[in-house]
Amino acid sequence: MKPSFIPPSKKLYRSRHKITRDDLWKSLTVDDLTLSVHEPNIIDYAVPVLQPPDASRRTTWCSDQSSSVFSVIPGVESEAGSQDDLTFKPNDDLQNLMFRNYSLDSLILSNKKRISEHEENVRTLKIVSEEPAGSKYTTCARPHNLPPMPTTERAQHGSTIKELVKHAEHVEKLEVQKLKFENRRLVRTDLESQKRWDMIKHVSQEDILIEVRRNNLIYHGIPWQMRPLIYDLCLMKDARTEHVAPFLDKWRVKLDKLLEDRSDEIFANLCTRSKWLTTGKASVANFYETFESQFEALYYHITVILRLDPTRDFIWPLMVETLCDVVENGPRELSMRLLDIFILTSYYHELDSVLDRIWPFVLRNHSYRFFGSQEDINKSIKSVHIDLPLLLQWLKS
């Protein structure tokens, strides 16, 4: 059957507006930013929202049915407004979409990539197990200076290889099942937290923080609709910080760019309620034992070889630089979720406990970088970048 002619205008319309869910996920969204969250001007993972054409409004111009202001014909005004009218206010459903849990989405997409890798390994192992002897997948050639392999030894060698391939295939399948189960668990947990937040919206202001604690929602982030109210309930109005370390001033500047209007108030509250941030002293008695047991070689290098104080000279500036990196390079919504955790835990006097969980997370991925001189360590501290979505899930666990 000969294909019918498609006008160029219709081709252009389809190319602009035929966007599927897979296209949105695979374009410049969380999928790409999972690998690198240091891209500037991402505008909070915003994606275009395309409205379906209205059947009641038939027109000869395809661009009249477009949701984009750049598709409006110059000089022609539609019901949605002219191309100069950009005062668009999204409804609640659209705002919920824009402010959804991107840390969860990033982690799920990362797990899906790992699932694809493991499934590819399973397919490769099946090909290896199904290839006959003497094929290109043979493990190695027998040295020429050895006598020919006996039949029994050849059969035993083949069965051993098959057992190894079968075991490797079984391990890969187990990893696939674990990752799929983890994704389902993450989705269920997120849905459950959303239901609990929906119930808390109808609670009186005096009981909101009590319900947040009772429902164990401290580490799940605050919905954007309730964020101003909960901040007002958690923050002290008269908090002041007169003397802070120089590198804490750097974090204050980063908070100004993130929060704009309440940065000084939040900075003062966090520093007032945290011994780690103000004095650089560990909040737990077994800090040194924990540091030495988990990172024995690094602890020996810091304390014995360089003769540094592991708290004030290493962990304290490391945590502050990590917080600066989160605010400066992390996507805004994810940075706000971490700040939500700080503000809630500071109200419950547990901020230092959160910071005590952050520095082991950083060292677990970057400890190999801190084995040089003191100057090299300071440079490495300033260049630390962390996986923010993974950190948020780490704090939830």
Could you characterize the architecture of this molecule?
The chain has three domains: 8-75, no CATH class; 102-139 and 152-200; 216-396, no CATH class. The relative contact order is 0.08. The protein is mainly alpha-helical. It is 61% helix and 0% strand. Mean pLDDT is 76; it is low at 24-88. It is extended, with a radius of gyration of 28 Å. It contains 18 helices and no strands. The chain starts with 7 loop residues before the first helix and ends with a helix.
Task: Write out key terms for the chains shown.
397 residues, 3 domains, mainly alpha
Quick structural overview:
Helix content is 61%, strand content 0%. It is an all-alpha fold and 397 residues long.
Major pleated sheet? none
User: pLDDT average, as an integer?
Assistant: 76
Number of helices: 18
Radius of gyration based on Cα positions: 28 Å
Tell me the β content. Answer: under 5%
The assigned structural class equals mainly alpha
Topology summary:
Blueprint: H1 8-17, H2 21-26, H3 30-33, H4 92-98, H5 102-130, H6 151-200, H7 205-214, H8 227-234, H9 246-259, H10 263-272, H11 275-279, H12 287-294, H13 296-305, H14 310-329, H15 332-347, H16 351-366, H17 374-382, H18 388-396
Organism: Lachancea fermentati (Zygosaccharomyces fermentati)
Protein name: LAFE_0B06392g1_1
